[in-house]
Amino acid sequence: QVQLVESGGGLVQAGGSLRLSCAASGRTLSGYYMGWFRQVPGKEREFVASIRWSGSTRHADSVKGRFTISSDNAKNMVYLQMNSLKPEDTAVYYCAAVTASGILQMTRDRVDYWGKGILVTVSS
């Protein structure tokens, strides 16, 4: 079992930056596929970014060039650096872990563990 706890959310102005952190406990992240999703009321949970143990990353087109996912495997930490924030980035952000192998793209139906989510609000 893995427990995921997000931190670093809050209120920022458009154009600002924020860094989210996800701390994992209960089991090492070694071999896990980690990622971030976000969700706003009335919409499905949306993929944001993912990272493999090897360091290979993938970012949604909507955040590409602005957000960067990274990890510290030794510390069981995953991060999401968010720059040039826009009001449409406002959402609850969730840390996610997938245990299945051979997955080319992280999707919400494949997620095995979720954090409780943390709110990011971007004002205009």
In short:
This protein has 124 residues and is an all-beta fold. The protein has strands at residues 3-7, 10-13, 18-25, 33-39, 46-51, 57-59, 67-72, 77-82, 91-98, 113-114, 118-123.
Describe the 3D structure.
By secondary structure, this protein is mainly beta. The protein is 0% helix and 49% strand. It contains no helices and eleven strands. The strands form two sheets. Strands 2, 4, 5, 6, 9, 10 and 11 form a seven-stranded mixed sheet that branches. A four-stranded antiparallel sheet has the order 1-3-8-7, with no helix packed on it. A hairpin with a 6-residue loop joins β4 and β5 (46-51). The mean pLDDT is 93.
> Treating each run of at least 4 consecutive H or I residues as one helix, how many helices?
0
- Principal-axes shape call: globular
Q: What fraction of residues sit in β-strands?
A: over 45%
Cα end-to-end separation: 40 Å
Uncertain spans, ≥5 residues at pLDDT below 50?
none
In sequence order, what are the helices and strands, one letter per element?
EEEEEEEEEEE
Q: Structural class of the helix and strand makeup?
A: mainly beta
Radius of gyration: 13 Å
Helix content: under 10%
Mean pLDDT: 93
The assembly state of the depicted protein chains is single chain
Strand count? 11
Largest sheet: 7 strands, mixed
